[in-house]
Amino acid sequence: xxxxxxxxxxxxxxxxxxxxxxxxxxxxxxxxxxxxxxxxxxxxxxxxxxxxxxxxxxxxxxxxxxxxxxxxxxxxxxxxxxxxxxxxxxxxxxxxxxxxxxxxxxxxxxxxxxxxxxxxxxxxxxxxxxxxxxxxxxxxxxxxxxxxxxxxxxxxxxxxxxxxxxxxxxxxxxxxxxxxxxxxxxxxxxxxxxxxxxxxxxxxxxxxxxxxxxxxxxxxxxxxxxxxxxx
Length: 231
Hints:
Elements: H1 2-19, H2 32-55, H3 76-81, E1 92-99, E2 103-108, E3 116-122, E4 127-134, E5 138-139, E6 142-143, E7 152-156, E8 159-163, H4 179-182, E9 198-199, E10 203-210, E11 214-217, E12 222-225
Transmembrane segments: 38-55
Keywords: Membrane, Transmembrane, Transmembrane helix
């Protein structure tokens, strides 16, 4: 704080020396009658800013930063293929149990949306059971997985419509002190050098469908049925 006041006093001294001569220093750009009130107002603002800076409590907003590299995250697809569900509880977003007949057709209401589906055959007839899983989604080291929503399944007869979650926008903001304060601080942030990184995790719809049920789908819907040809 003492060093800050010294810098402020030196700055004030330089300004007054600059305007002490009618056409010297920065006075060459303004008439002397106009310049002195401007300098006075600026100095008052500096003093007020320093006072606010000195007596305003500071706090830091901390996000949960993710140290784990993307390549070290879980392999959701393989874990589902191996039925290692105990390791996937934290990644399960929603579950379904849907009565079905002898055939089902999967479709989507958005031609640009194509979810991945893993299907396993089960002995219990008459019911489709499923769950939607999603791994971590990270933006600039910030885990935003809590904002990832599951798809919806709407049934109409033998057709199951897969509805993607509604689009939304996340805004990241950073608070900064005004120039009248930050010009006297030692710590400066080079925003031009700050980059961005985005890691999109996996999202998979896992389904258990009774044996003998005929399964078909919209071309955008990728289905991997265990021990059967993929389509």
